[in-house]
Amino acid sequence: MMLVLLLAATNAVAAATTRRSAREGGADDGKAGGLMAKPNCTAKCGNIEIPYPFGIGLGCYFGPRFEITCNQSTKELRLMETRMLVDSISLTEGHLQTKQLVNRDCYDAQGKPRGEDQSSGGLSVIPPYTISSDKNSFFVVGCDTYAHFVGRRGNQSYTTGCISVCKNNPNLYADSFDKNESCSGMGCCKTNISPLLDNLSLQVKSYKNHTEVHDFNACGYAFVVKKDNFKFGKTSFQYLNKTHRLPLVLDWQIGEESCQYAMQNKTTYACKGNNSDCQDKPSSGYICLCKPGFQGNPYLPDSCEDIDECALNSTLCNHGKCENKEGNYTCVCDSGYKNLDDITCIKVPSAKPLKISLVTYELELAIYI
Ligand SMILES: *[C@@H]1O[C@H](CO)[C@@H](O)[C@H](O)[C@H]1NC(C)=O
Ligand SMILES: *[C@@H]1O[C@H](CO)[C@@H](O)[C@H](O)[C@H]1NC(C)=O
Ligand SMILES: *[C@@H]1O[C@H](CO)[C@@H](O)[C@H](O)[C@H]1NC(C)=O
Ligand SMILES: *[C@@H]1O[C@H](CO)[C@@H](O)[C@H](O)[C@H]1NC(C)=O
Ligand SMILES: *[C@@H]1O[C@H](CO)[C@@H](O)[C@H](O)[C@H]1NC(C)=O
Ligand SMILES: *[C@@H]1O[C@H](CO)[C@@H](O)[C@H](O)[C@H]1NC(C)=O
Ligand SMILES: *[C@@H]1O[C@H](CO)[C@@H](O)[C@H](O)[C@H]1NC(C)=O
Ligand SMILES: *[C@@H]1O[C@H](CO)[C@@H](O)[C@H](O)[C@H]1NC(C)=O
Ligand SMILES: *[C@@H]1O[C@H](CO)[C@@H](O)[C@H](O)[C@H]1NC(C)=O
Ligand SMILES: *[C@@H]1O[C@H](CO)[C@@H](O)[C@H](O)[C@H]1NC(C)=O
Ligand SMILES: *[C@@H]1O[C@H](CO)[C@@H](O)[C@H](O)[C@H]1NC(C)=O
């Protein structure tokens, strides 16, 4: 409340200073660079930040699909409507990271199923969430292993699969895997997944119950995982034996309209303040961003604050003094240098004393006449 009054009453510079010191004094209202949760709302659960439009408790989130619950004892975050575990939330990309089960299919030396494993499973999300295709991959790992992947978008569905069969222990060749971090078919198979899926299901199976490879591989695995969060190599079989969940990325957006239509209704438009921008999502809906040169939470009024580029980087200007500007910076050049494009100082070439000799010549002429 006090914050709002101060903002209205003072100029931009004073207001920015006030906000900064309010933030430093506040217990847990966000990180440097802008208030991330709504004022008076829980900003963190354990170590995980909860930026608005997400929030805990009535009045703290943008809509029911953005409501989060925090288990105080376990510090586990869940999306209210889906009960899905939340690992992190990114505003700049419109991502939410969750953890997804690794499906496994294990056998004893005689080829009898171990029984305790979950060899099929899946994930179902509701709008505004979809399973990110550019941030995740589908992996199948094992030496007597194949798996189906069924993806759905609304009432459309498609099936893909991956097979990995090896006669020898791929770990023997794993030096070359490690160098190239590859999943090349030996012990591992990988495919991309199609965009905008809202439901996926996986099933992992074996051809010969791992009887021929049991010495070095008793289980097959299938999972969808965030890119760069799984690399096949020497230790992958051991790693997956004791890894039950892996990170997976969901995309989210606001509403179903494009920016152009959404911004026509200021009450429902989610991008707040003068320094926020709107970005269309490829399918439908939009996300909000701070304008270039600003940082903060674009879903909150006046949270996108100017970045002081000069303070962040003391060597930003060569041959000049850095001065911060609203949304940018400029270089005030040292003497002997001039400004090329506001941010680059170049040497001024030294002038020749040509004019003086001309003047002298004219004077001489005048005397002789
Ligand atoms: C935050 O809480 C304080 C104390 O409970 C209250 O005085 C203030 O009005 C609240 N601010 C907002 C923006 O709700
Ligand atoms: C928090 O987690 C613990 C352990 O999983 C569980 O027993 C408890 O019921 C949870 N509390 C809430 C409020 O969900
Ligand atoms: C092989 O595994 C399947 C289940 O995956 C099981 O139904 C079958 O009985 C197994 N075969 C043998 C010989 O144990
Ligand atoms: C798929 O859904 C759309 C709209 O939800 C509907 O018009 C269409 O008939 C459905 N197609 C099938 C094959 O069910
Ligand atoms: C790694 O694999 C890629 C694609 O399979 C290939 O283009 C690249 O040359 C390999 N790099 C090395 C260092 O072997
Ligand atoms: C998602 O797919 C799974 C497996 O095919 C199915 O059991 C589940 O009902 C689906 N969920 C929705 C919402 O379609
Ligand atoms: C996986 O780990 C369990 C113990 O957690 C162990 O008994 C089993 O032999 C391991 N399996 C493989 C294939 O490494
Ligand atoms: C904006 O949206 C709100 C809520 O849906 C609605 O009540 C209001 O009439 C809309 N305003 C305009 C100008 O369309
Ligand atoms: C936002 O921009 C409008 C129009 O340019 C201006 O009237 C208003 O004071 C600005 N608000 C803030 C907080 O800077
Ligand atoms: C800052 O100004 C420079 C030079 O005018 C321009 O190239 C650059 O894109 C601007 N940066 C931002 C964040 O607006
Ligand atoms: C600081 O700015 C200079 C000049 O633009 C750049 O070369 C350097 O990488 C920047 N340093 C950091 C830490 O960003």
Automatic annotation (TrEMBL):
Residues 1-15 form the signal peptide. Pfam families: EGF_CA, GUB_WAK_bind. The keyword Methyltransferase does not apply. It comes from the Eukaryota. InterPro entries: EGF (IPR000742), EGF-like_Ca-bd_dom (IPR001881), EGF-type_Asp/Asn_hydroxyl_site (IPR000152), EGF_Ca-bd_CS (IPR018097), NOTCH1_EGF-like (IPR049883), WAK_GUB (IPR025287). Coiled coil: none annotated. This is Wall-associated receptor kinase 2-like. It comes from Prunus yedoensis var. nudiflora.
